[in-house]
Amino acid sequence: MIHTIFALATAPGRAGVAVVRVSGPASGDALAALTAKALPRPREATLVKLRDPTSGEVLDDALVLYFIAPRSFTGEDVVELHLHGGRAVVAGVVEALGALPGLRVAEPGEFTRRAFENGKLDLTEAEAVADLVDAETSAQRRQALRQMEGALGTLYDGWRDRLTRSLAHIEADIDFPDEDLPSGVSDAARPVLATLAAEIDAHLDDNGRGERLREGLHIAIVGAPNAGKSSLLNALARREAAIVSARAGTTRDVIEVHLDLGGYPVVLADTAGLREAAADEVEEEGIRRARDRAARADVKVAVFDATALPALDPATVALVDGDTVVVLNKTDLSGDSGGIVVGGQSGLTVSARTGDGLAALEQRLTAFAADRLAGSGVPALTRARHRSALEECRDALRRALGAPLPELMAEDVRLASRALGRITGRVDVEDLLDVIFRDFCIGK
Ligand SMILES: Nc1nc2c(c(=O)[nH]1)N(C=O)[C@@H](CNc1ccc(C(=O)N[C@@H](CCC(=O)O)C(=O)O)cc1)CN2
Ligand SMILES: Nc1nc2c(ncn2[C@@H]2O[C@H](COP(=O)(O)OP(=O)(O)OP(=O)(O)O)[C@@H](O)[C@H]2O)c(=O)[nH]1
Ligand SMILES: [Mg+2]
């Protein structure tokens, strides 16, 4: 029996309106049980009193929608209850639904999973639904919307179609080797396979742009103790996220804030000041984490202290590379001491105290983010799951190209095609579904 599932689709807590969604064959019966009335016309917002079916008590005066399969988000019968968003209203309706036969609470992502299983979405589109819900910046929203509209699915299905046609040629060669076919039909498949392998390589070779756009560009602030790293983080975040004090060695844990820089998502991390003589083992561990974070960051902000000039902290200098923005902080205290050049880069002069130079720093970081994350119009792969399937496909194509016999070639082309099919969910993906949908929020 297919269960009918329900869940709060809007965020939990007090709100103007809360939406409870119900999907499955018993949806209509559930609505009828709550309204004690004939069902409203499909897809037409209707104001009705919802009552507890056992006590008859009015729970809310709600706007309801009834969708009949297959014309709904999930492809099943769906009911939406648009409630007054009070906790007691939602609790009362959810409790009443749970008491009805055949109904149970939905698991995370289960509505979208049913939409996939009913052919409303392919897997890349379903993943994009989750990404759209998680999108915090406009660039993330655009990427998710494009993928939800099928940009990636169409690309991968197109590649798979080309493989299917090549496979037909190769199989013709296997089945009718002596017939009147032009000799070596599988030879004709070779350039097609080679072109596709090159296209997949180009698609893979994107520096993880789409994946990083989902997760945010990682920027680490590094520098000597007291250079003003935490002050800088707070100034960029526009809130007091990290503790600032005049004592060297204040920050120990890595402190992260999420920023929206010109539409690009950034995870900015404050780290412990680097020094040889740590005060204790806690600071020592902090410094280890700071170095680790610096090593894994996409971009570093190396902060130097203008009041320490002409000395430049050597541990910080050692971390400056092509992915580093050099910053000279506390310039409000140093007068007109001129700038610094580290690793061939002239530093931005800023003051976390007065805010001087912070706009220029933000601009530099935004430029880094745009450089790493901006698209060129072609859709980018957005998940490690896609990447590994594409690598599997490309490797199978390379083997096919080197195959001495059409039979062996055909087998590798089949594997290549299967790898692509798993991305969009066209072939056996039952084993993947729990993993993919468990990261969704409840009610989606
Ligand atoms: N109230 C409400 N708002 C919502 C959703 C929802 O489920 N409920 N959505 C949920 O994420 C999004 C909209 N997505 C939807 C996608 C398809 C269908 C749907 O009924 N599809 C039918 C009919 C298509 C048509 O009329 O053109 C179908 O595919 O057959 C509904 C919502 C955002 N807003
Ligand atoms: N005048 C002035 N003082 C600053 C500036 N930036 C930071 N400070 C001061 O410098 C001291 C150290 O600042 P923090 O931001 O805690 O320095 P930090 O680099 O995070 O230090 P650790 O966490 O110990 O590594 C504090 O007293 C700040 O108020 C600045 O631009 N101008
Ligand atoms: Mg600090």
TrEMBL record:
Record-linked InterPro entries: G_TrmE, GTP-bd, GTP-bd_TrmE_N, GTPase_MnmE, MnmE_dom2, MnmE_helical, P-loop_NTPase, Small_GTP-bd
Binding partners and assembly: Homodimer. Heterotetramer of two MnmE and two MnmG subunits.
Protein name per UniProt: tRNA modification GTPase MnmE
Leading EC class: hydrolase
Cofactor list: K(+)
Residues binding GTP: 226-231, 245-251, 270-273, 351-353
Residues annotated for (6S)-5-formyl-5,6,7,8-tetrahydrofolate binding in this entry: R21, E80, K120, K444
Cofactor note: Binds 1 potassium ion per subunit.
EC number(s) from the headed UniProt entry: 3.6.-.-
Record-linked SUPFAM superfamilies: P-loop containing nucleoside triphosphate hydrolases (SSF52540), TrmE connector domain (SSF116878)
GO MF annotations, alphabetized: hydrolase activity
Keywords of the record: Cytoplasm, GTP-binding, Hydrolase, Magnesium, Metal-binding, Nucleotide-binding, Potassium, tRNA processing
Family to which the UniProt record says this protein belongs: Belongs to the TRAFAC class TrmE-Era-EngA-EngB-Septin-like GTPase superfamily. TrmE GTPase family.
Stored PANTHER family: TRNA MODIFICATION GTPASE GTPBP3, TRNA MODIFICATION GTPASE GTPBP3, MITOCHONDRIAL
Function, in words: Exhibits a very high intrinsic GTPase hydrolysis rate. Involved in the addition of a carboxymethylaminomethyl (cmnm) group at the wobble position (U34) of certain tRNAs, forming tRNA-cmnm(5)s(2)U34.
Chief place of localization: cytoplasm
Cell location: Cytoplasm
TrmE-type G domain sequence ranges: 216-370
Binding-site residues, Mg(2+): S230, T251
Transmembrane annotation, as ranges: none
Pfam annotation, one family: MMR_HSR1
